[in-house]
Amino acid sequence: MIAVTAEDLEQADAAAERAAGELREAERDYASNRASQTAYARRQEAVEAADHAAVRARLLRADWEEQEAVRRLRAQEAEAVVQELATSIEGLADSRAAAVVAVVAARSALREALEALGAHDARVRAVGRQFAERGLRRLEGEETGAGMDGSVWLRGQLWPLVDGGGVAARVLADLVGEGDRRHPVARAVWAPYGGATAARGRDAVLAAVWAERGR
Question: Taking the complete model, does pTM exceed 0.70, yes or no?
Fold first, then answer.
């Protein structure tokens, strides 16, 4: 059975009333000129339309009343369950409030992490820029110098740029995956932002994070 709404009932009742009004008008026209075939045909059409509209409104109301009875019964059953689960239900507001507090704290901590990652990325770029300003663009095989992308080599060690947003996203995906590996966030793959060395910097930071977790 298709669900019937109060709006459906109002529209059906209004249609039935319009059809009844048109029938009364057609009957007046026919009564004033019974020899008119046009008036007669109009009256017959109005009779059929009014009957159809009245039947439709009546059937809709019957369906609506039946559905209302079911809804009332379900509401009573639901209220009984609410009473039965009162203790658990009372804790819903508290548990959501606690979750909100935790998320707000996590958001603040994440902002701090992104700012720290951004500060590190900026320092790498600043050091690389200073080497470049001194004419020390790194050539193939050299252990020290500025990379073309802003990274810097220091005594054979590469200090790459860092995709901070990528670090945060991968950490979030890892945390979500601990609860459910099938979750879309856990399975998501984000393209590195900032080029190949930014991806290497992201992976280096993540490796250090995983190492800290393992301690």
Answer: no
